[in-house]
């Protein structure tokens, strides 16, 4: 699989999605940390993170090579909830946008690559 930010094939993406969806560890993390859903649109890969049993106080995204880490600090707890997703391509030049929605967060990994690497950490604080 590609890890340089170059193009990767549709077959690689489909296999990655299939592996992710069928991984029993994914289901366990959905239940113990927070639920994650993935969507593929024309302009972006969208990750939705939905905490089902807590209000969010802080959200931190960190990208390293092919891995996107999502950390959520609940408002009424000191235990950080964390999920990591490893993509079949490098995230180094992909702009990432964080959108706070009522009850969930939306992370857009834009398909249009930047010429220079963007920030590797995005943080948002406050009752969400």
TrEMBL record:
What superkingdom does the record give? Bacteria
Which InterPro entries does UniProt cross-reference here?
HSP20-like_chaperone
What name has this protein been given in UniProt?
Hsp20/alpha crystallin family protein
Q: Which organism is it from?
A: Rossellomorea vietnamensis
């Amino acid at each position: 699989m590609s890890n340089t930010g170059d193009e990767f094939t549709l077959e690689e993406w489909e296999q990655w999605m299939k592996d992710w969806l069928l991984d029993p560890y994914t289901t366990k993390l959905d239940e113990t940390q927070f639920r994650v859903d993935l969507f593929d649109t024309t302009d972006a890969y969208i990750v939705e993170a939905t905490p089902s049993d807590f209000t969010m106080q802080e959200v931190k995204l960190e990208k390293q090579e092919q891995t996107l880490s999502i950390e959520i600090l609940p408002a009424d707890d000191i235990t950080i909830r964390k999920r990591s997703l490893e993509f079949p391509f490098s995230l180094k030049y992909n702009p990432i946008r964080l959108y706070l929605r009522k009850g969930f967060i939306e992370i857009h990994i834009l398909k249009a690559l930047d010429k220079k690497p963007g920030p590797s950490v995005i943080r948002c604080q406050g009752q969400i």
